[in-house]
Amino acid sequence: MTGAKDVVTLVPGATHAGAGEAPFVRTSFQNDMRTSFGRSSATDGPMKVDAAVPPALAAAVQPIDRGPAAAASSLGPAASQELSRAMLSSWQYRVSGKAAVAELLQECAAEHIACGGPRGVEEVAVRHIRRHDIDSDSIYVVDLASPFRLFKAWRAAMPRVLPYYAVKCYPEPAILKLLMALGAGFDCASKGELDMMLKLGVSPGRIIFAHPCKRGADFRYAREHGITYTTFDSSSELHKIAEMDPEFKCVLRIRADDPGARVPLGLKYGAEVEEAAGLLAEAKQLGLEVVGVSFHVGSAAKNLATFTNAIANARKVFDDAAGMGFKMELLDIGGGFTGHFDECGNVMFGEIANTINAALATYFPPGGDLGDVRVIAEPGRYFAETSSTLMTVVIGQRDRPQKDGSTHKDYWLTDGLYGSFNCIVYDGQNPEWRIVRSPILPDPADAKTTYVSTLWGPTCDSADVVYKDVALPELRNGDWLLWPNAGAYTVAGACDFNGIEFTTPMKVYVWSDIAVDVEVPEADSKAEQAAEGAQ
Questions:
Q1: Which of 39, 244, 418, 438 is deepest in the core (most CB within 10 A)?
Q2: What CA–CA distance (Å, rounded) separates 333 from 208?
Q3: Domains and CATH numbers, the chain
Q4: Active-site positions, per UniProt (predicted)?
Q5: What secondary structure letter does DSSP report for 32?
Q6: Are 83 and 75 in contact (CB under 8 A)?
């Protein structure tokens, strides 16, 4: 839920458009993903879809989309013509240019909005709060245009590196389906994540089982479902692989620490480079196939030289492995990436792309003595963080007189440390907020005087506190706090302590034409709304 101040713009925003209305959806990450969008709440009936797109669309879309012509090719001539016409005329296809993405926007009833910044998201949320009289649930507003833009920026900045999304970061079904449609791979770490992605229709070849210490149940599931690649970093794991599934293509994870990363990982995973030769020799003795090297510099890394050094060390391991007769063909540069937008809505990638491209050109040049090594990465936060905004409502308050005569105010929210704000404890985040006054209550008489305040989570645990001693104007039951950049490592780590449904928040899906708040000329906005209404 934090921001970033990187540089170098890569992908500009698009034009503005109008807005409609969409229902809330309550989903559970643990349920079958094929039915995730089929449940709705705060509505009287099933989710609405655009009548312009016929039912044949669902059966026609392929995992990697090639547009309406390819989608219609398996249908009869009349049906193909109808599908192509309807698809090309829908706003969903117009903004994405992909049939599979258009289908997804239909499936989750995404609302088309002009701006995806805090003000634009607030407008969407306020409409839904007023319409459905929401007073006791948190709300996630998920902007699917954000990961779409970030994927395009990634491919433009680092064309050699295919992203394999780290599912653990934010297993939001709509984002998973979007990235699947765009051609991404997926980094899974357990039987549950493997099952989730396979049920979505991802082929085993687009999955890397990137956990260096797997359970027996994980091995059995992977073996039964054709998962090919997995990582290891210890002798123990090599022996488990040899016993459980010796057909795995093994990827040696080496340690590559960025001491400035928000969440360092080297203490737990990654073999020291000096240990690599011994592990390779042991793999050879066990008859295992080692095909690549992986590393992870840490979540939200800051030191660019860490990537250069890690890629250089990976080359050393490649050379050692090739000398032992292994056919090395995969380099996995892990995660650590962040993705944000500047004030004009352009993706801020920073110098990290130039650093990685230069290191790859030096140590893994295309057509070099190693051949064309396939390069992947495991970004999670990069795609997830800016995609979602959390809305929490004030459900209780209390004044505590202080000895100096001042008043300390306590406020209880609908989310806390057991929910999305676990990110404060586990991910080192410092969430930013924006006050949204209740659209149901009259404007407050005094909105300027501030008080030292504490924001509490809703559970019975006294440790469940989001922020202590922060300056806030007086809030009322029914006022809201808007928390931007709430996608990464938030609800994914929640649990339903006290029986409160933290893991299944209400959701509304949107597609913004620009990632930030800009002034949209009223005439243009009305014209766009009229055009979409006519469609």
A1: 418
A2: 13
A3: 25-49+110-144+387-534 (2.40.37.10), 145-385 (3.20.20.10)
A4: 460
A5: -
A6: yes
Q: What are phi and psi of 365, to 5 degrees?
A: -65, 140
Which own/partner pairs from 476-479 qualify as long-range (CB within 8 Å, at least 24 positions apart)? 476/394, 476/397, 476/438, 476/441, 476/444, 477/394, 477/395, 477/396, 477/397, 478/135, 478/393, 478/394, 478/438, 478/440, 478/441, 479/393, 479/394, 479/435, 479/436, 479/437, 479/438, 479/441
As a whole number of angstroms, the distance between CA 475 and CA 481 comes to 10
Other CB atoms within 10 A of residue 115 CB:
25
Q: Identify the CA nearest to 245 among candidates 258, 228, 257.
A: 228
pLDDT single digits (tens) 169-186: 999 999 999 999 999 999
User: What is the C-alpha to C-alpha distance for residues 238 and 448, in angstroms, rounded to an integer?
Assistant: 63
Q: Point out the residues that are catalytic.
A: 460
What is the SS3 assignment for 375? strand
Please say whether the beta carbons of 291 and 329 come within 8 A.
yes
- The tokens 């780590």 sit on which residue? 493
51: pLDDT strictly greater than 90: no
